[in-house]
Amino acid sequence: MGALTDIRLDEYLKLSQVEKGAYLKRDGRLFHVLFAQQFGREDLESLGRLATRIRFIAKTKEGMDFLRNVLSDKRAMLYFSQPSTRTFLSFCAACQILGITTGEVRDTSTSSELKGESREDSVRTFSSYFDLIIMRSEIGGLAERMAWTLSNTERPVPIINAGSGKDQHPTQALLDIYTLQRSFETTGGIDGKTIMFVGDLARGRTVRSLSLLLLNYSDVRQYFVAPEGYQIGSDILQTLDKAGVRYKLSSDFHALIPEADAIYMTRVQDEWDKTDGKPAVSFDRGRYSFGVEDLKRLKEKAVLMHPFPRRTEIDPAVDHDPRAVYWRQMRNGMWIRAALIATIFGREKVIDEHAASKV
Fold this sequence. Notes:
By secondary structure, this protein is α/β, with parallel strands linked by helices. The protein folds into two domains: 4-169 and 332-357, 3-Layer(aba) Sandwich (Rossmann fold), CATH 3.40.50; 171-331, Rossmann fold. 38% of the residues lie in helices and 13% in strands. The protein contains 14 helices and eleven strands. The protein has helices at residues 9-13, 17-21, 41-57, 61-67, 86-97, 119-129, 142-151, 170-183, 205-213, 234-243, 253-256, 273-276, 326-344, 348-357, and strands spanning 25-26, 29-30, 75-80, 101-105, 132-137, 159-164, 194-198, 221-225, 247-250, 262-265, 303-305. Helix 3 (41-57) crosses helix 13 (326-344). The longest helix has 19 residues, at 326-344. The chain is globular. The mean pLDDT is 92.
């Protein structure tokens, strides 16, 4: 399969996400990161191992000095036209760990877009100054259109999709998978586990991306628990059906807690209500919240996750329980994103060799 230079944009956009993923490499290696579907199990395992090695190296000053030279020859633009705290900061920290110099645009009212410049021209401008563009946008599909555009210029620059409309959030899914890998290290791994998603699943791009990444594992059961009007989209269910994945749709969260090996809580994403053009659906949020009393129903080896920000979905009093891994999950984002960036630039071997020399 070729690269994005070998296909017209209109032909590329007609492809399925899996088919598109085959075009996102350059010279045989990872280049653009746009969809969860572009990662296979081997990719996920390799990135997880590399993230753990970077964590190991970063424990000492000598190690941090080494890491800061891994990509000190590169520059990255963080173009976040949609509000973000964790994703922005974890990418920023990941770049700092690897010695990458960063620039940022977080408010388009301070950029030339205020003068009428298009998003496309803005991104093309960034590619003149930086070696990597990490972008988060409320506009679905913008990252992939710009990936094709930049691939077909005299200075191709990789793009990492840090959140695209309500479509996907692939690097959040990578940190979620890494968290599951670490959480189930002593209990047989992710294979055979039951993963439950709870809350606003219709608009939760983190849920969509993780659900698709889980297709790389064997006999994983997926439960989707949501109030009416917030259930997971039919496109995801069709993909699961095609893959032969067992799943369950429900609105009774508390009854299903004992069956879950991992519970992935989400908030109601009411920031989309205005753009959706329809009123929010009201429901009893207590029915989709996890409290201290629910710890008794949770398996001893299960884990509780949340992509944040949280509202009332998880009582802060639950934070002390070792099964509540969402703070660790958040920190994992920094390590897995550092591993991803190092892989894009082909520096994983240097990191592996350094880690091996310290064992």
